[in-house]
Amino acid sequence: MVWSVFLHIYQPPDQRPEILEKIVDESYRPLIAGFLANPRARLTLNINACLTELLVENG
């Protein structure tokens, strides 16, 4: 059996910056750090356009 990891992360386009920061700090950063710490880990990560724009706009 082949196991594949597919993650989809989303935030609505009108997400408040303070909520986005909390989500990034509690979910997205630890998730990415975990995968970076394990170079053999593989996954597909889908980030919608709204979230991409929010991350760019809010640093």
Helical content band: 40-55%
Count of distinct strands: 2
Which segments are poorly predicted (pLDDT under 50) over 5 or more consecutive residues?
none
Query: Main sheet?
Result: 2 strands, parallel
Shape: elongated
Order of helices and strands: EHEH
CA-based gyration radius: 13 Å
Strand order of the largest sheet: 1-2
Structural class of the helices, strands and pairings? Answer: alpha+beta
Structural account:
There is one protein chain. The chain has 59 residues and is α+β, with helices and mostly antiparallel strands. Helices cover 49% and strands 14% of the residues. It has 2 helices and 2 strands, in the order βαβα. The protein has helices at 17-36, 49-57; strands spanning 6-9, 44-47. The protein has a two-stranded parallel ribbon with strand order 1-2. The N and C termini lie far apart (40 Å). 3% of the residues are buried. The mean pLDDT is 94.
